[in-house]
Design brief:
The longest helix is centred in the middle third of the chain and has 16 residues. The protein has 7 helices and 5 strands; from the N terminus they run H-E-H-E-H-E-H-H-E-H-E-H. The protein has a 5-stranded parallel beta sheet with strand order 2-1-5-4-3. The N and C termini lie far apart (about 45 Å). About 5% of the residues have low confidence. The chain is of the alpha/beta class. Helix content is about 45%, strand content about 15%. The chain has one domain: TIM Barrel.
Length: about 160
């Protein structure tokens, strides 16, 4: 039986990087393209909703029963009554809860998945113990388009 490459990397203590497709969840061609581009995995999010505060607290208690968890600041911020516009800055109360869930999940020996909107954010997440780094495709693609257009129009500086 072939060995799953993600399981092999996980056993070796390696980090995974892949995109979360919320904006374009029904494009098999895009998934094939992203796999060919070298991402370790692709998440296709066909249904996305908020998480209650109690659900988030339950993640800490349930870490032993789960294979791991996803640390998403957006839904958590909204469920706690904070605005969230996909910016790199996370409300301190939200960040404290994310840190707590991450630390408890890692202490339980479980997998932690978290988003990263840039290479710098990915390195920070990896340094904090995140094993599956999620590239938020919409943010990633917008940044690439903006850089390309700015370069083409002569307004981009490296």
């Amino acid at each position: 039986m072939p060995v799953n490459p993600l399981r092999r990397k996980l056993a070796a203590g390696e980090t995974f990087i892949g995109p979360l497709l919320q904006e374009i969840p029904s494009s098999p061609e895009l998934v094939e393209f992203l796999v060919a581009a070298g991402f370790d995995y692709v998440i296709v999010d066909g249904e996305h909703g908020g998480a209650s505060t109690e659900t988030c607290r339950g993640l800490v208690r349930a870490a032993e029963a789960m294979g791991g968890c996803f640390l998403g600041a957006g839904d958590l911020a909204l469920s706690l009554g904070f605005e969230y516009f996909g910016t790199p800055t996370t409300h301190p109360d939200v960040q404290r809860l994310i840190d707590r869930v991450r630390d408890h999940t890692l202490a339980a020996g479980k997998l932690v998945m978290g988003p990263a909107g840039s290479g710098e954010a990915a390195r920070a997440a990896i340094a904090q113990g995140v094993q599956l780094v999620v590239v938020q495709f919409g943010q990633f693609f917008r940044a690439a388009c903006n850089a390309h257009l700015a370069d083409a129009r002569g307004t981009w500086s490296a």
